[in-house]
Each structure stands twice: as structure tokens, then as C-alpha cells.
Amino acid sequence: MKKAMMLQRFTSLTGLTKFNRTTQNTQMQAVVSLPVEERLQFAVPLKQSLFQDRESCCSLCIGLRSMMLRGVAHSAKDTFTLLLARSQYRNPGLNFPSVWTEVMKRSFPIHSTYTTDTKSREENKKTIESLYRLSVDIKKIRRLKEWVLLQDVAYVKEIADILKEMGADETTVANILERCPEAILHTPAEINSQRTLWQLVCQNENQLIKLIEQFPESFFTTQYHENQKANILFFQELGLKNNIITRFLTGAPSIFCNPVEKNKNVIETLQRNYLSLGGSDANMKIWIMKLLSQNPFILLNSSTTIQENLEFLQKNDFSDHEVLQLLSKLKGFIFHLTPTTMQKSMLYSKNVFKCSDQELKQLVLKCPALLYYSVPVLEERLEGLLKEGISVAQIRDTPMVLELTTQIVQYRIKKLSALGYDIKSGNLASLNGTKKDFEVNYGRIQSKKERPIFNPVAPVHIEE
Fold first, then answer.
1. Per-residue pLDDT for 364 more than 70?
2. What are the CA-CA distances from residue 317 to residues 300, 310, 359, 365, 371 (Å)?
3. Residues 300, 266: contact at Cβ < 8 Å?
């Protein structure tokens, strides 16, 4: 009865009288399943008298919404119609026809027409055809980076030909363009320049095309070409091997965006501090290259940040040798911190373990994670260990366990418990280390448990 009254109210407002009255459900479905353009004819007249009876309007919107949510709406257009109807009730000032006009301009087809840096609102048919001939998955591009297809100018064939010249087959070309479709927006001259640049550190074009297939975004970032070239030459002068530089290009491309002068300043700051902390000239080059190999992102920090963090450690009574020790253990990640965050972490550890400044310093040297991790992270990991029945005293004796996430600790405790190993009374060292280290320790405990106990004084029974 209620649905019938709603339908009657709807037809009286819109002037519709010809509906199939088989059932009340099909009547409601008939309205919302009409094409959007026809449904608009019902919705616009509805606006004129919609607010004359707000109670009826609210019931109508709820009725339409419930029907659409039960499966009548099968597309984004249906859903948007519902949202507009609801917004009309909530915001009488909304200009429904103007909003709908804007919606119809953008519409909700199978693929969005959203674009960046372009005035075009339609896909470039020539680009689509060229990609199709290369067996590129165009649906994937539409889903991930459709704006590429909207550009007026693209160099699909030219870029594909360059990749083929380097040894890429058709499948490889298609994979590269699917993963990095913006490659087709670069001119052939730009890509050839990148090709020449990367050949400075690649053994041959076979290696180059493999790198491009694995890391296409890094290769097709051409706006910092001059900085890339200058930094590659600088790293080679510094003594870094080409395989390390290629690892930087693919895994840390952002460091090549820096002007070479900035990277040089960071390196010079590290060298100067290494010598001032007691390092030798003979070992300085090796130390710098090892530090960069472990953490190239250190170059994203400023010289000021590096200096401030080193001074913080010295002010907290760490000797020069101990500071160098921390730098090596933390692989340069200490420069991603600030004196404030390090101070908070150290203060938290001091309160938890109830130790003196000297004892805290020894704990930090034993487990640099106490310095590196923030207070919330340390709190979470400590709480996880305490829930497993591990005492603070045990953690203080083996602080390295705080380097592990709570999930890893729980997994390892569960495996050891299955062997009958009581972690509450045992040594936490069995939990430490990498996955490989743990598996070795676990194997030792397991073999010891399964090994039969030999009693040298027990009588030997020999069958006659």
C-alpha cells in the first residue's frame, strides 16, 4: 500500500499515467530502468513541485534508492541519478538541469574522459589504432592512465621502433607500453638521448632492454636528463661501479633529479665528518661507497641535516668511534631522522628499562633500533613482547628483539613452542636475526630435541 501511494504521488507530480501495472515492483523498476535521457524528463518536472510536500519527496527518494540498491541500477549513470535526486531534497538551491548538463558532458562511459594537461575530451583514435597494431592492452591503459590516450600528439610507432632496435620483441614492446604508456608522449630524440645516456653504465643493449622492461618508469623519466648525465659521470669519478649506478638508476631514480652540486655537497660533508670522527684516508673511499650502496637515498638529505644528527650523537656522549659504529650499523638511515625524534626514542627506552645514561648508550650501541624507531613503534613492539609473557628484563638483555615486528615475533614463538621450547624462561637470542638466522637456530633446537639420549652406563642388551 505504501509503495502504491509513493508511485501514485510520483505519477501525479510528473504527469505520467501510462505504466505497466502488473506489480508495484515492476512499476518502480520501469521508472529507474529507463534510459537516462528519458528519466531526466521525469526528474526535471519533479523538481518544480518536489518541495511543496517534503514528506512525500523524502519517501519518494527513499523508495527510489531502495529499489536501485536492490539491483535496478546497473551503471554509474543510474547511481548518479539517485544521488542528484537525493541532493535535490537536501539542497533546494541546487540547479538540477545545469548540474545534469555538466554530468552529461563528462558522462560515465566505460572509461572516464578525465584528462590532465590537455584540452581534448576525446581519445586520440590514431593513438588507439597504433597501440592496437602493437597488441597493447588498451583496456589496461584506460583503467590506469587514460589521460595518455587523450593527448593530441603521441609517438607510438617511433618509440616502438626504437625499442625494437635495442632488441625488444613485440611482446616486450607491448609489456613496456602497458606498464608505462606515457612513454609514447616523449619524442624520439628524447628517448634516443636516454638510450645513449644509459649505455654509459650498461654492458650492452641486451642488458639495457631488460632494465627498461623491468623499470620502464625510470628510463622514460626524461625531464632531468642533464642532471642524470652529470650525476652518472660524478658517480663514476667517485669510483662506483657501473652495476651499482644502474641499481641507483632503477631503484633510486630520484637521486638523479638533484643537481650534481647538491650530491657533491652531501658526499663532501660525509667525507669531512668521517675524517673528523677518526676515519682514515685509506678507508674513506671504501666507507663512502659502501654507505651509498646500502642507502643511496642518503643523497636526498641536506648537508645541514647530516651535520645536526652527528652533533646530536656527540652531545649525548657517544665517542667518535661509537658514532662511526652507529653509522655503519644503521647504513646511513640515521640521517633520515631528526634530533627531536632520536631524543624522544632514547628517553622512552631509558624510562622503560630504568637505566642510567651510560647503560642506555650501551643498549643503543647493541641495538641501534632503539635510536632509529619512533616511540609509537617501540611501544607497539614492546607491548607485543609483554603479551607473550616476555619480561622487560629479558628484553633488556636481548634488545635486538625489538628490531622484529610483532607479527614476526609471534610466528617465531609459535614455532619454538611447538618444539617444547619455553621462551619465557629461555634466551631471546633464539628469536633474533634474519629469517635465515632463525631457521638455522630452529633447526638446531629441532635436531637436539629429536636426538636420542645416550646413557654410557646403561647395560647393553645383545641378542644371542
1. yes
2. 28, 11, 12, 12, 14
3. no
